[in-house]
Predict the structure of TauD/TfdA-like domain-containing protein.
Amino acid sequence: MAASTGLRLARTVPAVRYKASRHASRLAIPTSAAVDTLEGLHSTTSLAPSVKERHDHLIISSRQHGLQNIALPYAWLRDACTAPTSVHPSTQQKVFRTSDVPAAIRPATVLLRQDDEHWKLEIVWDCALQPDQVEADRSVFDLAELASHVTPAGYAARNSLQELAPILWKRSSLSDRNLRIPYARLESPPIMLAALRQLITYGIVFFTDVPVEQKADELCELAILSSMLGNIRRTWYGDKVWDVKSVENSKNIAYTNLDLGLHMDLVHYDDPPRYQLLHFLHAAKSLRGGASYFADAYYAAEVLRKTEPEIFATLATEQVAFEYKNGGHWRSSHKPTIELAPPSEFGEEAIIAAVNYSPPFQGRQPWSMFTSGGSTQQEAMERFRRLHHALGRFSSLVESPELQYSLQLAPGECVAFDNRRVLHARTAFSWDAASEPAGEAARWMKGCYVEGDSIRDHYRTLSERLVQDTTML
């Protein structure tokens, strides 16, 4: 049997084969008795998988892989093939279109076999997608890998969605052991992985003992640190990093010594940066105030979802206008305060994708937003009243001392946080200018943004590499 398929069986385990019928039905559907007989030849009958052919789909069952009577269309299976004729070996990119798969494609042969403890499903199709191909296409699926694309739990595990789900926090619960990580220890892959996990799940991590000697943008340590984590996001503040210090006639409230309440950066962008880093370089000896504090906006949103669902719904549907028009730039964008991810099969509740909250950068709210959809004047006024009330409830939650994590950053400390989730703020500050060197900033930080996709990419690839290294020991 092995010779007829052209594939070597690693162990003397009987393979289960189903051949195409020469009669009108094209496919021969094996009886359950025949399948039971074949499975019974294997010593681990209860764990042996089984397949049943139907007119346009295959039914797969495998207890050890979490598959129970899973029906998979033949066209879906052919589209999921990763053989060299389907996915280019070096680029790992698909070489055909989903629409190229014939809707009526059928298997000529279906084979289940065990190879080095791995169950494989092999299908020889009744046609080839490439016009110049002589032999029919052949697909081989590892059942464990197939399960990771079939069941919600398997797909979530494959993409680390469960492990990387947000961990909500308030001041008393933000005490994870990886909250503060020495910068020098990031050279260790397991420590880097812990830092990335902390940043993704809690949305905030602090790095300590980050050198402050180099302050030029191209030489500063923040550029090095951020590049270690992911890809720097360019904005109009600079190619890589930018300074945060008090200056006269500032174009941004962050560059003053005024109180800067809880907010998010660049919400007036269509696609605001996901992560932000702030590295504290210098503080005047006479500096008073300037404490930093943070709040988990996801925590506040989930509180509203559970306790005041009508307010949650208002914040998730009504748009808020954000705008920046200054310093030669003009950006505007409209977003709901609570941005939900598209529906998925991974949970009944809609997942929060981001929060958009930045009072300093709110624009004038267009009244047309409330009169849209044929709303009457009375309905428009009611919509505004609901939004006004909902924003007040959200604000009161995030401004609650129980939610805020506050600290006085010192030179050499760097905070990285999720700019689409964690609100950040700074209290007003003052200093004795006469007692400080002339022209020196009283409070000086460098900042930058990092792409969210690059952080998750780094986490997944590093996690996979460490798992492989452990397996090989």
